[in-house]
């Protein structure tokens, strides 16, 4: 028997409730690899899955947790053996499949990535899906020509999980970083991560009539979407790219095509969930080499399984700063 955060649904009222419960290894779904989970984290999707589900959860009872890192306990797949350190993000684990808010998880070998040298399981979850996605976004900007002497790179939703890690990576790589935040109290935190310019959310979260403004940004990691993304497209320098990562401010895009046609701006889509294996390995290796671990540590807020119902509600309200690391064995 082991502990897990189990979400159940009352069929009559349709309401869900989450509580730490004891479950048996035999309750876990069939798959090739049994992992003793060390750490998990809290993402927006986790907030949905701990709470009302947001249409993501297929079946109850459910164990959320869209990412985890731990140690292989049993494996029927040649690629993994007991004792191997692994990390998992995406593949709809924690949504359609039981996830990482559990002391044990049984998953497909294809979904795992061996932990790169230089990263332990706690650090891997301080990075988590948010940091992994931030790294994918930075790699996509670089692959599309981002260079250090092009000017400042904008990070929206900068004090959130994706934004915090993107800020730290970009700054560590030598880029000038401007962070957009709606929480002025996070200014010192963002500067400590390496942001040299803070843009107030209200300056940039509404569209304007002019489709093009002054050319300000050499790149952008956008966690917000909506009107802010539309506005940013018109502020990009000629030929530069925006990596669209999130929708914290809305899924709509009230934009014109003018920045694409007159400035050759690129809008790059970033998906972490179905990302091919080779690029996952590339991203985790880049994280191990390019993310300063002292800054990563500064972003971390420790938590336990029993903190998750509250943290899930907090992240849905945009009230989580930096990265929550859940010690499932505490
Ligand atoms: N594409 C993918 O594969 C992928 C992977 C991971 C996450 N995501 C998405 O990326 C987004 C960020 O994830 P996260 O884990 O960083 O979440 P998070 O920690 O909640 O951060 C989101 C940040 O966005 C800002 N924000 C929140 N509401 C806003 C609003 N109404 N208008 C403008 N800004 C707002 C806040 O930053 P400030 O307080 O600094 O303003 C907040 O901290 C989410 O939409 C998530 O679903 C996508």
Protein model, in words:
This protein is of the alpha/beta class. The chain has two domains: 2-115 and 295-327, Alpha-Beta Complex (Quinone Oxidoreductase, Chain A, domain 1); 129-269, Rossmann fold (3-Layer(aba) Sandwich). The chain is built from nine helices and 15 strands. It has helices at 44-50, 121-143, 161-173, 187-193, 226-233, 258-263, 277-290, 293-299, 308-316, and strands spanning 2-9, 16-23, 33-41, 67-75, 85-89, 104-107, 112-114, 153-155, 177-181, 195-200, 217-222, 236-244, 266-269, 300-304, 323-327. Strands 3, 4, 5, 6, 7, 14 and 15 form a seven-stranded mixed β-sheet that branches. Helix 9 links the parallel strand 14 (300-304) and strand 15 (323-327). The longest helix is centred in the middle third of the chain and has 23 residues, at 121-143. The radius of gyration is 20 Å and the shape is globular. The model has no long low-confidence stretch (mean pLDDT 96). It binds NADP nicotinamide-adenine-dinucleotide phosphate (NAP). NADP nicotinamide-adenine-dinucleotide phosphate binds next to helix 2 and helix 3. NADP nicotinamide-adenine-dinucleotide phosphate (NAP) binds next to helix 2 and helix 3.
């Amino acid at each position: 028997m082991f502990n897990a955060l189990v979400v159940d649904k009352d069929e009559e009222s349709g309401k869900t409730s989450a509580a730490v419960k004891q479950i048996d290894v035999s309750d876990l779904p069939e798959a090739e690899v049994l992992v003793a989970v060390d750490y998990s984290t809290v993402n927006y999707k986790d907030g949905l899955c701990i709470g009302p589900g947001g249409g993501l959860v297929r079946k109850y009872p459910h164990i959320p947790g869209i990412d985890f890192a731990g140690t292989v306990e049993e494996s029927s797949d040649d690629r993994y053996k007991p004792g191997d350190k692994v990390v998992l993000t995406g593949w709809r684990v924690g949504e359609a499949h039981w996830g990482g808010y559990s002391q044990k998880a049984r998953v497909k070998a294809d979904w795992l990535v061996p932990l790169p040298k230089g990263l332990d399981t706690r650090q891997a979850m301080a990075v988590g899906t948010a940091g992994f996605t931030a790294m994918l976004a930075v790699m996509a900007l670089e692959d599309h020509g981002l260079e250090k002497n092009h000017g400042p790179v904008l990070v929206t939703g900068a004090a959130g999980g994706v934004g915090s890690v993107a800020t730290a990576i970009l700054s560590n790589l030598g880029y000038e970083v401007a962070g957009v935040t709606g929480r002025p109290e996070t200014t010192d935190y963002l500067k400590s991560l390496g942001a040299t310019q803070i843009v107030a959310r209200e300056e940039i979260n509404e569209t304007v009539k002019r489709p093009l403004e002054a050319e300000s940004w050499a790149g952008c990691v956008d966690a917000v979407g909506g009107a802010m993304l539309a506005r940013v497209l018109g502020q990009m320098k000629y030929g530069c790219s925006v990596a669209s990562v999130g929708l914290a401010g809305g899924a709509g895009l009230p934009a014109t095509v003018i920045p694409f046609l007159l400035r050759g701006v690129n809008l790059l889509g970033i998906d972490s969930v179905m990302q091919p294996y080779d690029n996952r390995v590339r991203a985790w290796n880049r994280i191990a080499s390019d993310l300063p671990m002292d800054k990563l540590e500064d972003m971390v807020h420790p938590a336990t399984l029993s903190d998750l119902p509250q943290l899930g509600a907090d992240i849905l309200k945009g009230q989580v700063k930096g990265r929550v690391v859940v010690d499932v064995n505490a």
